[in-house]
Write a structure and sequence with these properties.
heterodimer, A: 372 residues, alpha+beta, two-stranded antiparallel sheet, 12 helices, B: 917 residues, 5-stranded mixed sheet, 37 helices, 13 strands, 7% strand, NT_sf (chain A), DZF domain-containing protein (chain A), DZF_dom_N (chain A), nucleus (chain A), double-stranded RNA binding (chain A)
C-alpha cells in the first residue's frame, strides 16, 4: 500500500507545521505554528477519556497559540498513535487495535520535498564538493556563540539561588500567602544547554497552585527578591526584579533569570482575563516544561545543540527568521539531524544546509494550502 | 415584573402587594436555588413576624402589611407559573434532585389529604423540610382544618386567625411545597393552602402563650415636652420642628420602612443595635457602632428621657428575620415602641438555656471564628496627595472602605473569602460548614426547639445554598458545554452517516466541509483525497492548456501525411537505388503507432538485401511524449537513415517529398523547405493554421561510432564530405531516446505528465524559466514526483516540484540531474548558467510561497477558481474574500529583484506582488 510505504520511507515524521493563518497572505508567516504530538500526553488514556467528557485534550504544543479545531487535533493525535505502532514511541493502544472508530483517522503527512530523504532518486552527477572548510566555519561560529565559562557560572549561580529560594518557599511558605507554589522547573535554553554568549538569561517556570493574579506574581517576585537579598546580602545593590506579563525577571549584574509563572492545569479554566495572567501565556509556560522534557529525552545529541545555536544566531541576524520560535528551531534542528534514512546523525554541514533547504521547500507552510 | 402569571392564590396575595416593591431581589441572581431560598426565607420571615406580633399582643393592622409583604415577596419568584405555589413547585422541581429526601412527608400525610402532592413535597429541599418538620409535630393540624377550611387567602378579615396570617403562612407553605402540576388542578388552591396554613398559624400563635414572652407592659409615658420621635429616635427642639420633622421626608421614609417591615439583610445573620435601630453585619461593625458618636448620642437622649436602655449586647438577627422592627411599625398602638422593642428583645433573650446557647453560636458565627484574613495583596491603598491612606479598595470584591477596621473585617468576611477562592486560590476553604453529623444534631435540636431558631436554620441554609450556587454555576457551565459538544458530535455523526449507524465509512458527503488535512481514510480502506483547491486549479489550468480537438486533428493529419509521404519517398529512393543494387527492396520499419497503411506494403518487402537509405520515421519530442499544448504548431519527426545522412540525401528527400505528399493528400498544399544546418526538412501546411513538421535526418551509426571508437574525428574523416551536422543528428538520436524513456517512466506516473505540461506552459510564459530545457524539466519532474513514494494529486505533485526547485535542486552543489539516456554521467540541466539556475530557484521559491498561501492561480497565470458551490459555507467565502483582498502588496521576500527581466504582460499574475511593492 503506497501510504504505508511512504511511512516507511519517512520513518520518523514527528512533526509538521501548520500555519494557523487562514488567509493566504504571505506575511502570514508570523502566525505559523508547529505542532508536535507530545509524548506522554497525546496518548494517555486520560486524554482520551477527557475528550469524551467534553474537555479538549492537550495533544499538541502550539507555539503561537491559535485556535485549532477538533479535526486537527484528531489528526495529530491519531498520527501519533499510528507511529506508536512502529515502536520508537510505543505506548498502550486503545481498545480495538488498529481499527479505530470513525473518528480515528490515519494521518498521513505529506512532507515537502527533502533531498536527504530522496537521495537515492538523485544520484550525484559529480562527486560532492569538499565541505570541510564549511564545516570548520560552522564549528568556529558555534564556538564563538557558546557562552564562556564565566557566563555559564554566573547564570548557574543565580539560577541555583533562585531555585533554592523557591524550594524553600514550597517547603515553608511562612507568612507568604500571596500564592502557593506547586513546582519549579528550569526550562528553555539554559536547561537545554543551547545558551548563547552575551545572552545570559535562564528561564524558570513556576507552577502555582493558586491562581496567578498579577498581584500574586508581583508579590512572589518581591518575596523571592527579598529572600535572595537575605541569602546573599552582598548582592543587594545589583539585584533587580521586574514584573511583566509572563512573570518577572530577576537579574544581577551578570545574569538574568526569567521566572515564568503558570498554574496547574485544573486552574486554567478558572482564569479571569481581568485578574490573572493571560491564559495563552500560562499555557505556553506549561508547554515550555513539556518542551524541555521532550528535549531531554529526544534531542540531547550534541550536534543538535550546535545546530540550534547556529540557527538561533541566524534568527537573530536575519529579519526573515524572526518568527521562528526557539521551540520551532529545536524541532527543526532535531528533524534535520536525526530524521534521515540511515538514522545516523547527519554531520553539521549537511544538517545546516538541510535546515535551510527544508525551510525553502516550504516545510513551514506545507499544510496551508490543504487547510481550506 | 413579578406578577406575570398570577392566579387565584396569587390574586389573593395581590392585595398585599403594596409596599412590596422595595423588596430586595438581590438574593436571586438566577436559578432555582435562589427561588427556593427566597421562598424559604419568606416563610421564615412571615413566621417570625407573626410570632413577634403575637408576642406583643399587637393586633394592629400595621403589622400585617409587613407579613403580607413578605408573603407576597415570594410570589415574585414564581414568575412563570400560574399560582405561587405552582411557581414554587416548578422551582423546586428542577432543584429537588440535589437535595436529600427528607422524611417529614409522613407528618403531613395524615393531616391534609387535600394534597396530592405529598411526594412532591417530600422531595423539596432538605432545608425546607427541616423547617417544615418542626411544624407538624407541634401542630395538631387537624383541629384547625376544621376551623378554617374556608378561609380563603383572599378573605382578609381582622380576626385573629384571619388572612394576614393565613395568607402569610399559606404562601410560606406553598413556597415550600413542590406542588408539581396537581396544585393547579386543586379546586381553590388558596383554600387548600389555607387549610394547611391553619396548622402553621396555630403554631405561630402558640408562642404568645409562653409566659416568658409576654411583653413588658411598663411603658413610661412619653415626655412630650421633649418632642421625641419614636420612629427616628431623635428629639426635636420644639413642637414646630417636631411637626416639621414629622412631615419631613426622612421621617416618612423611616415610617414607611418600619411599616414595610424589616429589610432583610443580605449577609446572613447580623447584629442589631436595638437602641438606634441599626443593623451591623458583624461583631466588629457592631462594636464600632457602639463606640460611635451617633450611638452615644442616642444613649444620652434616652437616658435623659429616662427610657430604658437595652443592653449593648447585640441582638442577633438572622437575615430577613427581623422581629423588633415589625413591632416598631406598630407604634400607633397604646404601647410605645420602646416597650415593644424591649419586649421583643426580652422575648428573644430571655428564653431557655438552649436558646442562649444558640445565640452564642450565632455570635460566634458572626465573629467568623477568627479566620485568617486572606488576600491582603489585593487590597489597594488609596492615598491622597500627601500620601496618607484615605481608603482601601478590594480588587477582588470591587469594594471600598475608608476604615482600616473595615478592611480587616472585609478580609475575614465571607464574601471576600469566596471571591478569593474564586479568583485566587481555589483551594481556600471558605465554609465553616458543620459536618454532616453536626448538621444532623443541629436539625435535631431545631426539631426540639421552637420557631425562634429560624434564623439559625436559615443562616445555615443560606450558607449551604450560597456555596452550592457557586458550585452549581460552574457545573452548569460544564454541563452545558458537554451537551453542546455532544450535540456537535451527534450532528457530525449524522452527517457522516446519513443513512444510519456505522457500516463502512462512506465517501464524504458533499455537504460536509472537508477536514483540513483530509487524509480521509481509515487505515484499511484508502479513500481518495478530495481535490484540494490546488488540484482544482491545476486541473483547470491543464484543461485550459490542453490542445483542442481540432488542433490535435490538424496536427495528426499533417504528421500522418508527412509520415506516409516519407514512406513513399523511402520506397521511391529504394526503387531508384535498386537497379544498381539488384532491385532488392529493403524493408521499411515503422515504429510509430500511427496509421497502418504502410504495414500493408511492408508485407511485400523482402527481408534481405542492402539497407534502404531511409529506414524509418519516428515521432519524437512533444509529439511522442504527448506534451502538445494549445497553440503548439511545431512537431518533430526523425528519419532514421541507413547510413550517415548527407546533404545529397536531404536534397533527394526534399525533392521527392512534395510529389509524394501530393499523392498522399491531393487536396492539401504543403510547403517544404530544407534547413541544411539543422539537418532537417520543414513541412508546413498552407492554410489558416500553419503547422510545421520538422523532419530531421539522422542515423544510429553516428552515435555508434561515437561510442565505439571513442575518437569521432578519425571516423568523421572517412565520412562523405557532405555529411549533415553531426550534433544535430546526435540530438535527434537523443530525442528518440528521451521519447522512449518518457513513455517508459513518466507516462505511468500519476500526475506526472500533467505537471510536465503545466511546467511547459510555465517555461513558455515566464522568461526566467525559458532556459530550463524541456528534457531537464521532464527528468526533474519525474524524479521529484517519483521520489515522493506515494501517489500525488496534481496539485501536490506540482507543489513538490516547486519545493524541490526551491530547496536548491538546480543550484550548484546539488547532486544534479543525472541523465539516464547518456552513457557518461551528465547533468541534464548542464546548459543552465549559474545565474539562470539562481533565477529559476528564486522564482520557484516565490511560486511555492504563492501556492502555500493559496494563490496558485498566480503561479498558473489564471483566474482564481471559486470553491465549489456546495462547499460554500461562511468559512469558505470568508477565506476567499481574504484571498482576493490580500492579493497584492504583501510579499516581503518573494520578489527581490530577481524576476525583473520578466515582462509584465502575461506573467503578471505571478509577479503581482513584486510589482505592487
Amino acid at each position: 500500500m503506497p501510504r504505508r510505504s511512504s511511512r516507511r520511507c519517512f520513518p520518523q515524521a514527528p512533526w509538521s507545521v501548520y500555519s494557523s493563518s487562514s488567509s493566504c497572505d504571505l506575511v502570514g508567516h508570523s502566525t505559523i505554528i508547529l505542532r508536535f504530538p507530545v509524548p506522554h500526553e497525546s496518548q494517555s488514556p486520560q486524554a482520551r477519556a477527557g475528550r469524551s467528557q467534553g474537555q479538549r485534550p492537550q495533544l499538541w504544543i502550539s507555539l503561537h497559540c491559535t485556535k485549532i479545531n477538533r479535526k486537527q487535533q484528531e489528526m495529530v493525535m491519531t498520527r501519533g498513535r499510528g507511529r506508536g505502532m512502529r515502536g520508537g514511541m510505543m505506548r498502550p493502544m486503545g481498545p480495538g487495535g488498529p481499527h479505530f472508530g470513525p473518528k480515528m483517522k490515519q494521518f498521513v503527512p505529506r512532507l515537502p520535498f527533502d533531498m536527504v530523504l530522496c537521495e537515492s532518486a538523485f544520484p550525484r552527477v559529480k562527486a560532492a564538493p569538499d565541505e570541510s572548510a564549511f564545516t570548520q566555519a560552522l564549528l568556529k561560529r558555534n564556538a564563538d556563540l557558546s557562552p564562556t565559562a564565566a557566563e555559564q557560572a554566573a547564570v548557574l549561580n543565580l539560577v541555583t539561588k533562585i531555585q533554592t529560594v523557591m524550594d524553600n518557599l514550597i517547603v515553608d511558605p511562612g507568612t507568604f500567602d500571596a500564592c502557593q507554589i506547586e513546582e519549579v522547573r528550569q526550562v528553555g535554553s539554559y536547561k537545554k544547554g543551547t545558551m548563547m554568549t552575551g545572552h545570559n538569561v535562564a528561564d524558570i517556570v513556576v507552577i502555582l497552585k493558586t491562581l496567578p493574579t498579577k498581584e500574586a506574581v508581583e508579590a512572589l517576585g518581591k518575596k523571592v527578591c527579598d529572600d535572595l537579598r537575605i541569602l546573599e546580602p552582598q548582592e543587594v545593590l545589583v539585584l533587580t526584579m521586574l514584573p511583566n506579563d509572563r512573570g518577572f525577571e530577576i537579574s544581577n549584574s551578570e545574569a538574568t533569570v526569567r521566572v515564568l509563572v503558570t498554574t496547574i492545569h485544573q486552574n486554567l479554566r478558572k482564569l479571569d482575563p481581568e485578574l490573572h495572567l493571560d491564559q495563552k501565556i500560562l499555557q505556553s509556560h506549561l508547554a515550555a516544561i513539556r518542551h524541555s522534557r521532550w528535549f531531554e529525552e529526544n534531542a540531547h545529541h550534541s550536534t543538535i545543540k550546535v545546530l540550534i545555536r547556529l540557527l538561533r544566531d541566524l534568527r537573530g541576524r536575519f529579519e526573515g527568521f524572526e518568527p521562528l520560535s526557539p521551540w520551532m528551531l529545536d524541532l527543526l534542528a532535531h528533524y534535520a539531524i536525526l530524521n534521515n534514512p540511515s538514522r545516523q546523525a547527519l554531520p553539521i554541514n549537511s544538517a545546516f544546509r538541510r535546515c535551510l533547504q527544508l525551510l525553502a521547500a516550504g516545510t513551514l507552510p506545507a499544510w496551508v494550502s490543504r487547510n481550506q | 415584573m413579578y406578577w406575570s402569571g398570577l392566579s387565584a392564590a396569587a390574586n389573593a396575595a395581590a392585595a398585599y402587594q403594596t409596599g412590596q416593591t422595595g423588596y430586595p431581589v438581590g438574593h436571586t441572581p438566577t436559578g432555582t436555588y435562589t427561588t427556593q431560598r427566597a421562598a424559604g426565607s419568606t416563610y421564615d420571615t412571615g413566621y417570625q413576624t407573626a410570632a413577634a406580633a403575637a408576642a406583643t399582643h399587637s393586633t394592629a393592622a400595621g403589622t400585617y402589611p409587613s407579613a403580607a409583604a413578605s408573603a407576597t415577596y415570594d410570589y415574585g419568584y414564581g414568575r412563570t407559573t400560574q399560582t405561587a405555589a405552582a411557581a414554587a413547585a416548578a422551582a423546586y422541581d428542577s432543584s429537588k434532585t440535589y437535595y436529600a429526601q427528607p422524611s417529614s412527608a409522613t407528618a403531613y400525610t395524615g393531616a391534609d389529604t387535600h394534597y396530592h402532592n405529598k411526594a412532591a413535597y417530600t422531595s423539596a429541599s432538605a432545608y425546607t423540610t427541616t423547617s417544615r418538620q418542626t411544624t407538624p409535630v407541634v401542630t395538631p393540624k387537624t383541629s384547625y382544618t376544621g376551623t378554617y377550611p374556608g378561609a380563603a387567602a383572599a378573605a382578609a378579615t381582622a380576626t385573629y386567625n384571619t388572612s394576614p396570617y393565613a395568607v402569610q403562612t399559606t404562601t410560606a407553605n406553598k413556597t415550600a411545597l413542590p406542588v408539581y402540576m396537581q396544585q393547579t388542578s386543586q379546586p381553590p388552591a388558596a383554600a387548600v393552602a389555607a387549610v394547611k396554613t391553619a396548622g402553621n398559624t396555630w403554631q405561630t400563635f402558640k408562642k404568645p402563650q409562653v409566659p416568658g414572652k409576654t411583653p413588658k407592659p411598663k411603658a413610661p409615658p412619653k415626655p412630650q415636652q421633649l418632642h421625641y420621635c419614636d420612629v427616628c429616635k431623635i428629639s426635636c427642639a420644639g413642637p414646630q420642628t417636631y411637626r416639621e420633622h414629622l412631615e419631613g421626608q426622612k421621617h416618612k421614609k423611616k415610617e414607611a420602612a418600619a411599616k414595610a417591615g424589616p429589610t432583610p439583610s443580605r449577609h446572613g445573620a447580623s447584629l442589631r443595635c436595638e437602641l438606634c435601630d441599626v443593623t451591623c453585619t458583624g461583631a466588629d461593625a457592631y462594636a464600632a457602632h457602639i463606640r460611635g458618636a451617633k450611638h452615644q448620642k442616642v444613649v444620652k437622649l434616652h437616658q435623659k428621657l429616662g427610657k430604658p436602655i437595652p443592653s449593648t449586647d447585640p441582638v442577633v438577627v438572622g437575615g430577613t428575620t427581623k422581629t423588633s422592627t415589625t413591632t416598631a411599625g406598630a407604634t400607633e398602638g397604646a404601647k410605645t415602641t420602646t416597650s415593644g422593642t424591649t419586649a421583643a428583645l426580652t422575648s428573644l433573650l430571655m428564653t431557655t438555656d438552649v436558646k442562649k446557647e444558640d445565640l452564642k453560636d450565632d455570635l460566634l458565627d458572626l465573629k467568623e471564628k477568627d479566620v485568617e484574613p486572606v488576600g491582603q495583596v489585593y487590597i489597594e491603598e488609596i492615598k491622597n496627595e500627601e500620601g496618607k491612606v484615605i481608603s482601601f479598595n478590594c480588587k477582588l470584591c470591587e469594594c471600598r472602605f475608608n476604615d482600616p477596621n473595615a478592611k480587616e473585617m472585609h478580609m475575614k468576611g465571607r464574601r471576600h473569602r469566596l471571591q478569593y477562592k474564586k479568583k485566587v486560590n481555589p483551594e481556600l476553604v471558605v465554609e465553616v460548614k458543620p459536618s454532616l453529623r453536626q448538621r444532623k444534631l443541629q436539625e435535631e435540636k431545631l426539631r426540639r426547639q421552637q420557631p425562634d431558631l429560624h434564623q439559625l436554620r436559615e443562616e445555615m441554609w443560606r450558607r449551604r445554598e450560597e456555596e452550592r450556587l457557586l458550585e452549581e454555576e460552574e457545573r452548569w457551565y460544564w454541563e452545558e458545554r458537554r451537551r453542546y459538544e455532544e450535540e456537535c458530535e451527534y450532528l457530525d455523526w449524522c452527517r457522516r452517516y446519513p443513512r444510519g449507524p456505522p457500516g463502512p465509512p462512506p465517501m464524504m458527503p458533499p455537504g460536509m466541509p472537508r477536514p483540513p488535512f483530509m487524509p480521509g481514510m481509515p487505515p484499511m480502506m484508502p479513500m481518495r483525497r478530495p481535490d484540494s483547491s490546488d488540484d482544482r486549479h491545476v486541473l483547470a489550468k491543464h484543461a485550459e492548456i490542453y490542445p483542442k480537438e481540432e488542433e490535435l486533428g490538424a496536427i495528426q493529419k499533417i504528421v500522418s501525411n508527412t509520415e506516409k509521404a516519407l514512406k513513399m519517398v523511402s520506397d521511391y529512393l529504394a526503387e531508384v537505388d535498386a537497379p544498381k543494387e539488384q532491385q532488392i527492396k529493403p524493408k521499411t520499419k515503422k515504429e510509430e503507432e500511427s496509421k497502418g497503411e504502410d504495414e500493408k506494403k511492408d508485407g511485400e518487402k523482402k527481408e534481405d538485401g542492402p539497407p534502404r537509405m531511409l529506414k524509418g520515421v519516428m515521432r519524437v519530442g512533444i509529439l511522442a511524449k504527448g506534451l502538445l499544448l494549445r497553440g503548439d504548431t511545431s512537431v518533430q519527426l526523425v528519419v532514421l537513415c541507413g547510413d550517415k545522412p548527407t546533404r545529397t540525401l536531404l536534397d533527394r528527400v526534399a525533392d521527392n517529398l512534395p510529389k509524394q505528399l501530393a499523392v498522399v493528400a491531393p487536396e492539401d498544399k504543403y510547403d517544404i523547405q530544407r534547413v541544411v544546418e539543422e539537418a532537417a526538412l520543414v513541412v508546413q501546411n498552407i492554410g489558416e493554421q500553419r503547422i510545421c513538421v520538422n523532419v530531421t535526418l539522422t542515423s544510429p551509426i553516428m552515435r555508434e561510432q561515437l561510442l565505439h571508437d571513442g575518437d569521432s574525428q578519425v571516423t568523421a574523416v572517412k565520412d562523405p564530405p557532405d555529411v549533415l551536422d553531426k550534433q544535430k543528428c546526435l540530438d535527434a538520436l537523443a530525442a528518440l531516446r528521451h521519447a522512449k524513456w518518457f513513455q517508459a517512466r513518466a507516462n505511468g506516473l500519476q500526475s506526472c505528465v500533467m505537471v510536465i505540461r503545466i511546467l511547459r506552459d510555465l517555461c513558455q510564459r515566464l522568461p526566467t524559466w525559458g532556459p530550463l530545457n524541456s528534457w531537464a524539466m521532464e527528468l526533474m519532474c519525474e524524479k521529484v514526483i517519483a521520489s515522493a513514494g506515494q501517489h500525488l494529486s496534481p496539485g501536490d505533485a506540482l507543489r513538490r516540484v516547486f519545493e524541490a526547485l526551491a530547496s536548491g535542486l538546480l543550484l550548484p552543489g546539488s547532486p544534479g540531474l543525472l541523465d539516464p539516456c547518456e552513457k557518461d554521467p551528465i547533468d541534464a540541466a548542464s546548459p543552465l548558467s549559474a545565474q539562470e539556475r539562481e533565477d529559476i530557484t528564486a522564482s520557484a521559491q516565490h511560486a511555492l510561497r504563492l501556492i502555500a498561501f493559496r494563490q496558485i492561480h498566480k503561479v498558473l497565470g489564471m483566474d482564481p477558481i471559486p470553491p465549489p458551490k456546495f462547499q460554500r459555507g461562511g468559512r469558505f467565502t470568508r477565506k476567499r474574500r481574504r484571498d482576493n483582498s490580500t492579493g497584492e502588496g504583501n510579499d516581503s521576500e518573494g520578489g527581490d529583484g530577481k524576476k525583473d527581466k520578466k515582462e509584465d504582460g502575461e506573467d503578471s499574475k505571478m509577479d503581482t506582488d513584486k510589482e505592487s511593492k
